[in-house]
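Entry 12.
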Amino acid sequence: MKTRHKVILTVTLTIAQAIVPLPHGMGGRLSVLSAQESEGESLLLRRAITLTDVTMSLSFTGSTSNYRMYDTHDISTKQGNGTADVWPYTAALEAHCSVLEALEQLKDEEPELYAENHDRFVTRLKVLFNNLAFYAGTYKLNSYTQCQKSWTIYGVHRGAATGQATVTGIENVYDDQMWICRELVRAYRLTKDYKPTDADKYLKEATMLANYCIDGWDCCLDNNGNEYGGISWGPGYNSKHSCSNGPLIQPLVWLADIYRADDELENMTYYYIDAENNRQKRNVRHSDLYLDFAKKIYAWQKEKLLNKNTGVYYDMCGAVSGEIGEIRIGRYTYRDHVDLNGPGGTAYTYNTGTMLAGATELYRVTGLSAYKTDVNDLCLNSFKAFAKGRRMSGVVYREWPTDEKTTSGFNTWFDDVLMRAFVDAVPYNDANTYATQSLESFLQNLNYGWENYLQENQLPIHLLDGWGDDYVTKGFHQLAFASELAMLAVWKYRENHPDAIRKPFFESSPTQQPAGTSRAVYDLCGRRASAPFRKGAYVVGGKTIFLK
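Predicted 3D structure (tokens):
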């Protein structure tokens, strides 16, 4: 688990009519909602938009060129305090991407809502991306295969100016780069048809971050000539965590989709250690390397961190030594392998969620039944391990892990990671219904909290119990709720419109193709399909075909 104090601020809109101004031209008209409206996908999307809008009003300060997120917010004093680290800041990117994805899904059903909100969310996403530069810094790293390689990546803490954040040692961690990478791939896909210049920047940055994380893979060889594998928490750590491996799998598969093309060149340099323990390099295709690493990371984490008794994932493997390993070869110094202890730590929902999302993506692109089995097992086991039954007024709710106080942990966002994995898994969870049951419980809890416990336009982390005496909130939590509402809207739309074809979110190449010429194959949920193809309906070149 991340132990650093990382928090951001967000709020929700009361059921009563309200207009909350957003700072420095970043505003927009907020929808007025009623708890009496039907609990359909449109209502969920409106709530997500409202929650995100109010968050941006109260959780951020400064101009659009110096946009700073507060660390915490006290609803009793109505004051924001401190400065958020980069991890919570990433949740703002996530919420905007989730709202945009829902807007795209519901575009035909809610054209006015789309027209009112799409462009301003695209604009605000760009502002958030531009202000990521306050967390950026440049340093030189000795990795397992490269010496004094210069990287510009994101530090834990915000710098005084753009590009001036401290990123050395433990001041940058790989999982932060992975969460950012994921959202920038989403941002690319969601904006490439509207803001191609901005989208290209998102893709370029996501690619660089993926390469940086891959450079952290322990490719040192054991006595059998096999890679030790795994990515440490950060360059300043030896411990290897679920959260510094699993989150990279899904964006790597997405990047492989994006870069794959018939004429793709081997124009990426990959550094590795050969069988004689020599540092080598070769040219590879982006799509091949990214898919290969998605498989390798998934296999490593399943082998090292899956709790076979519970079927969900441990938090980490601690290292035998805290001193970073080094090996001198000629005049060069490289990082060296450090042995690990066995797995341990709390089983947090997000560590199982990233592996569920990874299994879903790997099954989608490979068709291998082992990944499909993992999808079904993880849906079942995570429901059994994390969703605790609770009866209130004759109604059974399923409560997911929640911290005692808002300032004592991050379970609200951890649950969000698992929930969005359930959305991904629904089309493939055909052995049981636990993905759907889990999503229904998230929806039930959010509705209950929204309709019973809104205070100062915010939701408590205890959706079934309210605020208690804890009046300090985190925007991190609120943005997680906003993202959940948006992705629940996406899920409900597909549930309520089984004949709807999702816009192709997975493309084979960033190079724009003439309409109708793509040979990519999609299922009716809009997911990229790969051989071997089974019986059923598919979409090819915008046309539906049936395979008997």
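Annotation: The two ends are 48 Å apart (CA to CA). The first helix runs from residue 41 to 58.
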